[in-house]
Amino acid sequence: MKELAGLLGVSSSSISLWVRDIELSEDQRDALRRRMGGRIDGSKANALRALERRRRDQLEGRRLARENDVIHAAGCMLYWAEGSRDRNAIKFTNSDPAMVAFFLYFLRRCFGVRDEQVAVACNLFADHEERQREIEQFWLTTLRVPSASLRKSTVNRYSKYSKKKRKNRLPYGTCRLSVYDTRLAQQIHGSIQEYAGFVREEWLM
Asked: Which residue among 61, 86, 171, 190 has the highest number of C-beta atoms inside a 10 angstrom radius?
């Protein structure tokens, strides 16, 4: 793609958009390997295969975006705004219980995510410390996930300079919802790009 971009005088992201639906034959892959210097060592070959899988997953995400499902569109846009850019995992953090609950509903409805795949971690403040168990249970109940989903909470203690000047106004801190699944992460990344009409090659890397 970099070679084509140089020949045509366009960006690599434009080339990626133009060739995204092209499937290479094994002969074509062999030809590319030869142009890259012959044999590719095992780690390089594995990395290339993994990159191809992520690219296919993004293409599947683009296909899903074209099905015009409102919940799917809402969930993907929410993730674009509030989610991580991890290539191998979904990580969504927010303080709004309804928003986090809706995002998990989206994952369950559109991708069949199961309870045992979900990890929940709370980010608390100093004035939450006495209510830590209560707050953790609040998030488990709100998200309708078992206690096995809970991971260790983080407690942010105020510095001596801010302790008397700042008071936390988030009654339940923030909740991070994680699902470690490369295919899922890449499908959502692909869907976001399809909905918004852009190419972000670095999301594959």
From this structure: 190
Instruction: Output the pTM of the full model.
Output: 0.76
Q: Is 41 left (phi over 0), alpha (psi -120 to 50) or beta?
A: beta
Amino acid identity, residue 12?
S
pLDDT in tens, 164-179: 555 657 899 999 999 9
Q: How many CB atoms lie within 10 A of CB 21?
A: 9
Q: What is the largest CA-CA distance in the chain?
A: 69
Give residues with Cβ within 8 angstroms of 147, minimum separation 6.
Answer: 140
Report the distance separating Cα 196 and Cα 138, nearest Å: 35
Q: In what order do the strands lie in the sheet with 154-156?
A: 90-94, 174-179, 118-125, 154-156
| Secondary structure of residue 165 in the 3-state scheme | coil
Q: Is 197 helix (H, G, I), strand (E, B) or coil?
A: coil
DSSP 157: P
